[in-house]
Amino acid sequence: MTAYPFKEIEHKWQKIWSDSKAFEAHEQSSKPKVYILEMLPYPSGHLHMGHVRNYAIGDAIARFKRALGMEILHPMGWDAFGMPAENAAIQHKTSPAGWTIANIQSMKEQFQVLGFSFDWSREVTTCQPDYYGHEQKIFLDFWRQGLAYRKETWVNWDPVERSVLANEQVINGRGWRSGALVEKRKLTQWSLQITRYAQELLNDLAKLEKGWPDKVLRMQENWIGRSEGALLQFQVAFQDTWIDVFTTRPETLFGAAFCALSPSHPLAESLAQTNPALAEFITDCQRMPTTEEALSTAEKKGFNTGLRVAHPFIPDHTLPVYVANFVLIEYGTGAVFGCPAHDERDFEFASQYDLPVIVVIQPETKELTLPLSAAYTGSGRLVNSGFLNGLSVEEARLQAIAEIERRQIGERQVTYRLRDWCISRQRYWGCPIPVIYCHTCGAVPVPEKDLPVVLPEDVVFGEGGNPLASHPTWKHVDCPSCGQLATRETDTFGTFFESSWYFMRYCSPSATDPLDQQACNSWMPVNWYIGGVEHAVLHLLYARFFTKALRDCGYLNLDEPFGNLLTQGMVCKQTFQDEQGNWLYPEEVDKNIKGQYVTIQSGKSVIVGRSEKMSKSKNNVVEPRTIIDAYGADVARLFILSDTPPERDFDWNDEGVEGAWRYINRIWRLGIQVIDMPERVGEAELTLTLRKTIHQSILKFQRAFEGNAFHKAIAFLRELTRALEDAIEDKRVSHSVLIEGVKILLQGLNPITPHITSELWGRLGHTISLLEAPWPVPDPALSAVEEVTIAVQVNGKMRGSFTMAIDSENTLLEAQALALPAVIKDMAGREPRRMIVIPNRIVNIVV
Predict the structure, then answer these.
(1) Quick one: which of 42, 96, 204, 463 has the most CB atoms within 10 Å?
(2) For residues 419 and 291, what is the distance between their CA atoms, to the nearest angstrom?
(3) Distances in whole angstroms, Cα of residue 534 to Cα of each of 39, 44, 86, 171, 453
(4) Residues 275-309: pLDDT tens digits?
(5) pLDDT, the chain, mean
């Protein structure tokens, strides 16, 4: 039999689905509605294997839910604004719009070749006025609600992009795209008051506990960063000036050795005006990385201002005031007091500047004596602390706050790490901010009848920065209020603005208003949202905020946008370098007769690196088109879902692709054999045994699909395939049962390999499409499975158990053991050295 003719069949079915509009969602349908969504892609022009994995996962979920009889919304669109398009357009001397639209067309064709079940009738493109005009309306509503505001503030400035970055876009002190060291600058910017929702964003994480990964919930919680403590005032000695300090450790006040101001603190800036040395120190600090993580490892530096502040609890005792590089203006008040004995950062600073170290907390088990070798940060009882002596840390904290309030020098306070979201960007390729500036009227909103404010295409890119600021005509306009000459805002929105509400626009992409509340109520929240964990803070937090803000503006009756979140792992591949350290593409490397990796061109030795995330910078990429051209879309989809749980990283191997191709051909041969087979009755006992296997398989692969464990579903379907192949070979099983088995096999495989299964389904003589066929229902009398409990150990220590059908294959037992949460936690990312399986009893994982 000839090999499976994938090109002909895949093209045929993709055309059928397109012509019949098979995947369009119908809001008026009486079926239960399910919204499946993968994160909005940036149109780079090329799909990579990470895309294929992400969208294959979403498509498998969507097709499975459709087979269960549900009405599916599974849309697609484009996150089309942003710096990469602008930079590419400058480099290639074209327009960002032209560059972006061409890339969208290219990627759309690649998506269609993969057979993904997207509802293209709902496609949105964020750089089109019919999308961002509604976004401008949303901004004006936020402004009216006091959620959007403009003020001078310290911002993160990327000197390469020449634009502002949000805090979340600064990674280890560098711009998330350019990699340049970020500077602190003071600019007048537009921001959104996300802090108004800090507590609600924190509280509502409880609603997501069953549907979101615990890791993502903790990342959100940490970024919001709720802190309980006290706001207290330190009076500057001999002056009528006070420094506000927020602290979570008021019980350590008797151990205070200094106060420290952020370099961006107003008092520090004021002192710098008459102190050139301090001004220079502040300038140096502003060139440093700006994140808490980066500052925690940087050398602690300070500048003694000469000021001293009165200690709030100790009469006639004062503390020196420093400007310090480790104090962030974004947290609390931008000022701290330092207790060196009980804070690592303060201890390091005190050691640097020879400041006193006073022990005020003694642990229960040992006595701290000076000099300390390190700060003690544990629990204990208070000493050297006046009225707090003898109290536990928790008791002393409450007592200290009460005393601060009694003396009227402060109050109990809750603060958050979360800062308001700066949305202004000094770039061209973004949504124009719909504001006009008038010398008389100030900042005036663009009238809604004049929306959208369309981005001009006749711009000239110079040495960088925003060409809108120098546009000869576009920025000049009459004031809507008084009619005098005025100018437009030339900043544009950061692209997270677009991606914070697109999933709602999919519900009603043709609505005349930004959102149709009835449509949103019908489809939202998104039932399954699939994307990378790298968006756990930036995108997801903003999307949650937008949902709550739009609710309060009257657009929605919804608190949270995403019910279930699946964060898929990365696609990784072996890396190779030549002897000079240059990265090599996989196709440049081969094994010699000794099994050693060498370069194909020269035969020289190759440095074999670890398997890492596919990246063009390391040349360890595999283009999806290579797989699709050689083997077809179904093979690419099957391979990428076969071996690993979707939330774990996926290690690429070429042998796996070949294996997927061989299995697809087995399916093809099996289907054709059964179709062409003459009628036969078969032996009753063997036929009944096969029917039991078939109906038990339904239960197994359905449970796997319900848990998004596609690798398990594929393993169960492979088991069924082998059983059917053996039955054909045996020739003692009835033809009707073989037909039943192949039909169920095709239905189980369809969410993963839709082309070959649709073709064989049609050839079996079915008059309705496989898309419309009801999901198979197991016969209870046939599907009952005797199960056993399998114990799971890691390095010989019990870590849990699970139940499986008796005599299950070792590969299935191993996969189930590795998927146990307790095992995943214990292994902490380590790979198993080997796995010992005692059938029907135990799996021992050796790491």
Answers:
(1) 96
(2) 13
(3) 12, 18, 23, 12, 32
(4) 999 999 998 888 776 555 666 667 899 999 999 99
(5) 92
Residue 840 region by backbone torsions, left for phi larger than 0, else alpha for psi between -120 and 50, else beta: left
Q: What pLDDT, in 10s, does the model give residues 432-491?
A: 999 999 999 999 999 999 999 999 999 988 766 789 998 999 999 999 999 999 999 999
> What's the confidence (pLDDT) of residue 536?
81
Percent of the chain with pLDDT over 70: 98
Q: Under a CB-based contact definition with an 8 Å cutoff, are residues 207 and 559 in contact? A: yes
**Cα-based distances in Å from 809 to 116, 377, 718, 806, 812:** 32, 51, 11, 9, 5
- Using CA atoms, how far residue 819 sits from 53, 54, 390, 816, in Å, is 19, 20, 49, 5
Rounded CA-CA distance 505/507 in Å is 5
Q: 68, exposed or middle or buried, with CB in 10 Å at 0-12, 13-18, 19+?
A: middle
> What tokens were used for 500?
């914070």
Tokens (6 digits) for 5: 């003719």
Alpha carbon distance 716, 698 (integer Å): 9
Single-letter amino acid code for the residue at 523:
W
Distance CA 246, CA 219 (A): 23
Please indicate whether residue 571 or residue 272 has the higher confidence score (pLDDT).
Answer: 272
d(CA 132, CA 498): 8
**Is the separation of the CB atoms in 179 and 195 below 8 Å?**
no
Strands (E), 631-690: 650-651
The residue assigned the tokens 């990365």 is 570
Rg (CA), the chain: 32
> What is the residue whose two structure tokens read 């520090």?
268
Is residue 127 within 8 Å of 97, Cβ to Cβ?
yes
- Mapped onto helix, strand or coil, the DSSP state of residue 643 is coil
Please tell me whether residue 245 adopts helix, strand or coil conformation: strand
3-state secondary structure at position 757:
helix
Quick one: tokens of 545?
């905020």
As a whole number of angstroms, the distance between CA 331 and CA 291 comes to 11
Burial code of 752-763, b = ≥16 C-beta within 10 A, e = fewer?
Answer: bbbbbbbbbbbe
Taking CA atoms, 250 is separated from 96, 399, 409, in Å, by: 54, 9, 13
Q: How confident is the model at residue 172 (pLDDT cuts 50, 70, 90)?
A: confident
CA angle, 770 as apex, 716 and 54 as ends, to 5°? 60
The DSSP result for 341-363, as a single string, is GG-HHHHHHHHHHT------EE-
Query: Strand 526-532 and strand 562-568: pairing?
Result: parallel
Q: Which 8-state DSSP code applies to residue 432?
A: B
Between the CA of residue 484 and those of 398, 436, 473, what are the distances in Å?
A: 59, 11, 16
The answer to whether the CB of 799 falls within 8 A of the CB of 826 is yes
| Numbers of helices and strands, H then E, in the chain | 25, 35
Residues 6 or more apart in contact with residue 19 via CB below 8 angstroms: none
pLDDT at 18 (0 to 100): 97
CB neighbour burial string for 787-817, b if at least 16 within 10 angstroms, e if fewer: eeebebbbeeeebeebebbeebbebbbbbbb
Its pTM stands at 0.86
Kindly compute the dihedral angle of the four CA atoms of residues 439, 440, 445, 447, in this order, to the nearest 10 degrees. Answer: -110
Using N-to-C axis directions, what is the helix angle for 754-763 and 735-749, rounded to 10°? 150
Residue-level pLDDT at 464 = 61
Check: CB of residue 117 under 8 Å from CB of residue 20. no
Return phi, psi of residue 20, to 5°. Answer: -90, 0
pLDDT of residue 34: 98
How many Cβ atoms from other residues are within 10 Å of residue 599's Cβ? 16
What does each C-alpha distance from 520 to 23, 506, 511, 593, 706 come to in angstroms?
Answer: 19, 9, 11, 62, 25
State mean pLDDT over 61-88: 94
